Amino acid sequence: MRPPPTRYKVVERGRRLEVIDTLTGEPVSRPPPASSRQGSGAGIDSDVFVTKRWYDDKAPRAIRINYATRARLLNLRWGIALGVALLIALSFLFWPLAIFLVFALAAGPKLRAQLRAASTSWLDGLDQAA
User: Fold this and answer.
1) Beta strands at 16-21 and 8-13: parallel, antiparallel or unpaired
2) Whole-prediction pTM value?
C-alpha cells in the first residue's frame, strides 16, 4: 500500500530551493501548521519538558531544560529502570506478595496523592534549577 502524496514539494528555481504547496501551487512563506508536523518537540531530549496531571499537581507546566536538569532527568531514567527491574525480579521470587502490592498501589488514592505530591515537589526543585 502506498502512502498518499505529500502536500508540499521542494523544487529548484533560479539556483534556490523553494517549498511549493501542491494544493495552491504557490510558494510557502511560513512553516506548515503544528498539526501536520511529525513531533511535538517537547520531552526530555528537547529544550522543554511538559508535565502531565497524573504525576504533577501543577500540570501542565513547561520546564526549561539546561545541562544540569537534563543530567538529573537522565539519572531519573536510570533509577526508574533499575526500580522496575528490581520489582520484576522480586515479583518472580515473591509472586503472591507482588499481586497484593499491585492491588494496594492501584486501590489507594491517598498513596497516589502522596506520590504525586512528592513528584510535584521534586519537579519544583527541577524548575528552580533551570
Assistant:
1) antiparallel
2) 0.55
The residue type of 102 is: V
Residue 45 sits at φ, ψ, to 5 deg, of -85, 0
At 119, list the grid cell.
Answer: 513528584
For CA atoms 64, 69, 70, 73, give the dihedral sign: negative
How many C-alpha atoms does 66 have within 13 Å on its Cβ side?
A: 6
Instruction: Using only the alpha carbons of the chain, give its radius of gyration.
Output: 23
Q: Both ends of the chain: CA-CA distance in Å?
A: 47
**What pLDDT, in 10s, does the model give residues 69-95?**
888 888 888 999 999 999 888 888 888
